[in-house]
Each structure stands twice: as structure tokens, then as C-alpha cells.
Amino acid sequence: MSFLRGRQTQKIRLPISTRKGPLEVPLPTEKDWPKDDEEDHVLVDPDEELDSLPQPYRMINKLVDLLFDQAWEIIEEKNVLREAESSQIQLTVYPPLGEIQLNKMPNCMAVSQDYVFIGEAKGFSIYNLYNANRIYAWEKLKVDVTSIWATDLGNEILIAPLDEMGIIRLFYFYKDGLYLVKVINEGDDTSKQTTCVKMEISQGGNFAAFLLQGAGDIWLDVYKLPKETWLKEVENPQLTSNPKKKVRQLQLNTLGPTSADHLEMDINVCFKGDIKLTLPVYTMKIKPPKPVTGTTFKSPLEVFAKIEDCYGLGSGQNHFIKDSQWERQAEIFNASYRKCLDGEWEEEPLSTATFYFLLPSCLFAMPMEVKGPPGMACVLGVHWSRSHNFFLYSLNRTLKDKADPEGVWPCAAPIVASQLSCSSSYLVLACEDGVLTLWDLAKGFPLGVAALPQGCFCQSIHFLKYFLVHKGQNMYPEGPVKSQMKCVVLCTDASLHLVEASGTQGPTSSVLVERPVKHLEKTICAVAPVPALPGMVLIFSKNGSVCLMDVAKPETICAFAPPGAFPPETPWEPVFVVSQHYPCFLLRGDYSQDTESTDDAEIQYSVFYFNFEACPFLENISKNCTIPQRDLDAMAFPQALPLEKRCERFLQNSYRKLEKNPEKEQEHWTRLRRYSLLQRENFKK
């Protein structure tokens, strides 16, 4: 881009790889412009030097050339990406089977039995999972519901909505009635108001635990739920003695839902606020472990006397390390890492807890006289953030008993993530060094330790129901499977791994999805197993895509997308729920902030219903996903058989091999007779 005076000349630019240094933008002052800046050019015509551009045009010429080079690199990169996408197999994208239209933003969702519970402004709504009709809307709050949990108890459902003020309520849903059991953390004094962080209900609904915080402190409250008493109270209700108040209450509650949303309503379900159910029994308060400080004991004998029945052994609380030893160790550490420690220290966030209700196991040292019904939780497992220990607390206690742990499982590094399987048979503890410890709680022994690849650290763990691959298709064994587990691990670098463990064999780890390097929009933000499809997981990416992956191959099978393909917010935080019993999932339709309408009342929100059986090839997988036990016995699947069956099959195979060779068979029988005679003579002696 030069103007030539006189004859026309040419300049040839050297390749970028042969230039002596990176191009620099000249300073905006004319005094600092270099007088001779022709080192990057080869002159074809000797007279060209007289025809070079003067400043500032030479600087403009360089800037234009630089922009052209950068634009050319972007064009080439997009062409390579376009060619790569065209060479890939195009996934089939399936639309939703149904849609629930709302005039309020759905903040959270939960599925239990045949119902969908959606938390929204001023309360939550109950929908039918099959026809998307709203059954009831409980709208008695002034704030939004931000989280909601629903636990299946068989014929009943426990619902726990958490509002944005941190107040959590416990509801009991039975047949056509919704009952408020208790507001867990609502207080009269607003200055002393506590907030709920998370909650957990045990399998079977016998216990509930709530993680609460307030006034700079955090703790865990454990309740025993009288669900048998609740069932009697709702089947034989004792209504209030004021008939006018009763009729007015029922009229308000039955007519209230019909005024919201233009959906078909089922008025059979109503909120029965006049029936008071028995309150849960407060049994235990658990606080984070105290920081380890210098000992107050004068002799080791006092330390051993403090430990009663080995309770709390391994927690590091009862030790014989003096304050002077801790101070000396801190001085050595500060002197060794002075450079790393210099600077401002951020205040550590308040500790939080992850907790699970565990079923009886030989791993837990419980008193012999303590016996509960089968399937009832007996131990609460807790680990706190930045802690190495997994604490075990017995649930067979009262509020008067001291809340000391009955057992402690120490780990080599702080525990950052954990997960309990749906059957409560397996537990995985992930430490901050990328090491996973796999426990078989039913049998009472560890399945092994698995290390993630270097640089990968666990973000979340998701259990898969154990499956086998038969004739290229994933299948569930019909009978119970023991000491066999599979789970997917999502790491902080957005890579996805499959971890498997089988009995005495060591666990194995394989990569399902690599860490994205160039295309960050494909970063995985959420993962959800699909129990109705063996070995299948839903993968949600930041660009709004939802894909179904087969972890056994591994490959992506298909994709799901709502109609309209609205661009989600960045980064995308999907709100979804996958049914544990039916082949479906629900996804909130997220709109971008750049919508034309500014009035919230005019914006229509949607929750889309996707059914896996609506996909032709997934329908066959969903309906034929179980291998009968008789077929397992006839097939070569030793990992799915108990030890007795494996030994029996081994002996039968050995006997069949001997039948093919009569000479060896006779030799083996002769050897067995000789061994039997020797054993008989030794026994006589």
C-alpha cells in the first residue's frame, strides 16, 4: 500500500518466521518515529528507497498489514473448524415432547413419583408428570423459592422448599392433601435469624438433616421424622373446632390455584393448613471440629483416659502435642515459604459440610442392643470443607447425649467432594490431590484407590447403575450385583472420566471427554446420569447444547434442544431434573437478557419435557435394558455372578474339558483316588 513516484517498483515482505522481532506500534509522537525502518523488506528495485512512504503513512501501512495478517489467521482457523465440523457425524437433534408455560421464572425443579415440583416466586407448584397439568400452587411467601427437594416415601412425598431468605419448610404430600409439618429455622427475632444452606432426608424418610448458619457459626441439625404417626393423622384427621374458619380456609385453598396460569387444573388437591401434624423430634446438633491446638494433658495416660470406647479416635482432638511444638513447626513453615506467604491474606470462607445417611454395615461399630428395621439409616456420615476426616455419628441418640463421632475415617488430603450411591451401597471420597477412595459399604471393605490424571481435580461425582455390554448394547443385570460399581467424575478443567471398580480388582479410570483447549464454548457445565438408559449420561455445555453420551463406547449418540434455540446467558447454568423411574427429563428454557420485552409480566417462561422413548432407537433400549438371571448364568459374565456361581462354573468348565480327553480324565480320577486314600490314612493316624 505505497504510492510510487516515477517508475513502478515492488517490495517483497519477508515471511513472519524470518522477521527479526515482533511488530510494534510506533508511539504517537512524531519525534520518536524511527528514521530507517526498512529492515523487514528486500528491495527488488534499488530506486525504491527514494519512493518509500513518509511518516505517518508508513505507520498506517504497517498497522493495516498487521490487521490483515490477524484477520487472515482468524479466517483460516474458522475454515479449519468448519471442515472439522463437516467431517464429523451430524447428531440427530430431538425436540421436546411437551411444554409447561409459566408466567413466573422457574428457579428450581424436583421430580418424585408422578409429580413435578417447581419452585418459583412466592411459593411452588405441583404438576402432573404425564400431562403437564398443574395440580396445585402453594403461594404464601413474599420471596422466591430458590431450591426444592422431594423425597419419595412410597405412598407419601416429603417436600422441602428453601426460599431466598434462607428459610426452609417441610411439607407432607399424601393423596389429595398437602400438609405443612414445620418451618425448620424461622425465628421470632430477625436479628438472630438463621439460614439453611442444604438438607438431606434419609432413604425411607426416617431422618432429616439441615445445615444451618448464623452469627458467624455453622452447624448441622438432625431430626427424627415420625412418618408412621403422620400417616395415621392424615387418614384420621382431627379438624379444628371452628367450622366457619374451616370452611373459609378450604374455599380459599381450592379456589386459589384456579386463578394462576391458564392451565387445566385438578382441584382435588388442596392445602390442609388446619391439620397439625406431629413435629419432628430434634435429636442432635453437630458442629465443625475444633482446630487442633496445643494439649492440656500432662501425661499420655490422661490422653488414653479421655478416649472412651475409641469414639473419635483419629480426629486429632485428643493428642499430646504441646503449644511450643506447634509454634516451632509454624516458624519453620513460615521461614521455608516466606516468599509464597507474603501479601494480603483473604479471609477464609465459613466452613460447609457434606453429609449422608448410611445404612447398617459391618464398617460401623454399633452396639449390639441397637437394632432397627431393615433399610433404616443408622449412621450419619459428615465431612467438612478443608478437613481430612470423614466423621460417623450414630443416629440412635437423644438431644441429651453428647454429639461425639463414633468413628473417623482419616484421608491423606482434605476432602473436596463425595457421593453416595442411590442404593447407599457405595461411597466415593475425592481429595484435593485428585485421589478417589472407593468404599463398598454393603460388604464392608474398600474397593480401591483411583488417581485422576495429573492436573485433574474432582468437581462432582455421579454414580451409574451397574451395567454390562451384551451384543453391543448396554444392559442391566436382573439380580443384585455385589461389589461392582461405575461412576463418572467431572473435573475442574471440564474433562469427564469414567471410574470402574470390580471386587478385588483394582479400580480403573478412563477419559470420556478431554479438556477443551480451543473451543471453550463446549466446556461441560453439568452432568446427569439417566437411570432409564443403561450407561447413558446427559452432558450440558456452556453454549446451551444438551447431548446424550454412551460411556461404554464412548461416543455422543444424539442431542436435545428446545424449539426456537434461544441463546442462553453466559455462562449457562442449566436448571433441569432427570426422573429416576421414567425415561424423561425436564429442562428450563433459558432466554437471553437481550429480549425485546422489558416487562416481566409479558415474558412467558417455559419448562420443556423430553421423553427418551420418543427417539426411535432409544425406545428399544429403554424397554429392553435388562438381562434375565438365567441368561447371565449361560453367558460369560463372571463379574456379575456371586463367588459360589463363579467356582461352580469353573469346575463345570474343567469337567467338560476332561470329557473331551478320556486319557486325561482317567489320569485325574486316579490322582483324586490316591489323594483320598492318603487323606484317609492320615486321619486314622
TrEMBL record:
Pfam families: WDR93. It comes from the Eukaryota. Residues 1-38 are annotated as: Disordered. GO terms for biological process: electron transport chain. InterPro entries: NADH_UbQ_FeS_4_mit-like (IPR006885), WD40/YVTN_repeat-like_dom_sf (IPR015943), WD40_repeat_dom_sf (IPR036322), WDR93_beta-prop (IPR049547). This is WD repeat domain 93. It comes from Callithrix jacchus.
